[in-house]
Every structure is written in structure tokens, then in C-alpha cells.
Amino acid sequence: MWGVRDVQGAIRFWTEALDYRTLREPDVDWAILVPREGHGPQLAISQVTSTAHDHQRHHLDLYAFDQEDEVERLVGLGARRVDWEYPDDADYIVLEDPDGNRFCVVQAGEVANHL
């Protein structure tokens, strides 16, 4: 479950970010997202009262073969870069979705310790 304060905003962001669609008509406080085509994990979105800055709700790593292009695409969809102290060998960039939930875009094919 992906806890958010703005369900409709999360649907707009994550369907574009992941190339997903809603499984069925979303409720006011709940939605299930599935891959637009083919099979893959479903993502449940639920309205919560906590803010992402007060309570870390979850963490998601997205792996990309072209990390910088993917970061720019996600920023164009409404994500924000996070001021983060990165180690020298960091293979990830920390972003926030429009609801303030942090996630990482990781360079695919490389393994490193991160969040």
C-alpha cells in the first residue's frame, strides 16, 4: 500500500511514472494501479492522515538504464529532487512524489548500498 494524502494526485503521478492504469474506478480514498499492458505488480494507493515528512510510510526504488533521463521525466511529471548527502559511490538519486513520499531512481545494472 502506498499511503498518500491526495489520492487523485497520486493516481495522476504514478500512472504516468510507471506506465500504469487504474484497475477499476477509484474510490475517493483508495485505488489500485496495474500495468497498462501485460503482467506486473499491482500498487494500492490509500488515503492517510500522516504527512510524509512526519512519518516515513514506505520506500520505493525504481531502476533505470538511463538514470538522468528518468529523473528528468519524473521531475516533469511533478516529482521533486531531495537535498540529500550522497556517498561518493552512490548509484541513486532521491526524489519526492507530489505527495512528499521519497523514492530513489537507481542506475540499473549496478549494486550499491543506499536507503
Q: What share of the residues does DSSP label as strand, in percent?
A: 25-35%
* SSE-based structural type: alpha/beta
Per CATH, the superfamily of the largest domain is 2,3-Dihydroxybiphenyl 1,2-Dioxygenase, domain 1
Average pLDDT number? 88
Main sheet record: 4 strands, mixed
- Estimated helix fraction: 10-25%
Could you tell me how far the N terminus lies from the C terminus, measured between alpha carbons in angstroms? 19 Å
The Rg value, from CA coordinates, equals 14 Å
Poorly predicted tracts of residues: 110-115
SSE topology string: EHEEEEHEEE
Q: Counting H and I runs of at least 4 residues, what is the number of helices?
A: 2
Pfam family, one: Glyoxalase_6
Protein name: VOC domain-containing protein
Domain VOC: 1-108
Organism: Leifsonia poae
Q: What does this 3D model show about the protein?
A:
The chain is of the alpha/beta class. The protein folds into 2 domains: 1-49, 2,3-Dihydroxybiphenyl 1,2-Dioxygenase, domain 1, CATH 3.10.180; 59-115, Roll (2,3-Dihydroxybiphenyl 1,2-Dioxygenase, domain 1), CATH 3.10.180.10. Helices cover 19% and strands 30% of the residues. It is built from 2 helices and 8 strands, in the order E-H-E-E-E-E-H-E-E-E. The protein has helices spanning 7-18, 67-76, and strands at residues 2-4, 20-22, 30-35, 43-47, 60-64, 80-81, 92-96, 102-107. The strands form 2 sheets. Strands 1-4-3-2 form a 4-stranded mixed β-sheet, with helices on one face. The chain has a 4-stranded mixed β-sheet with strand order 5-8-7-6, covered by helices on one side. A hairpin with a 5-residue loop joins strand 7 (92-96) and strand 8 (102-107). InterPro entries: Glyas_Bleomycin-R_OHBP_Dase, Glyoxalase_6, VOC_core. Pfam families: Glyoxalase_6. Residues 1-108 form the VOC domain.
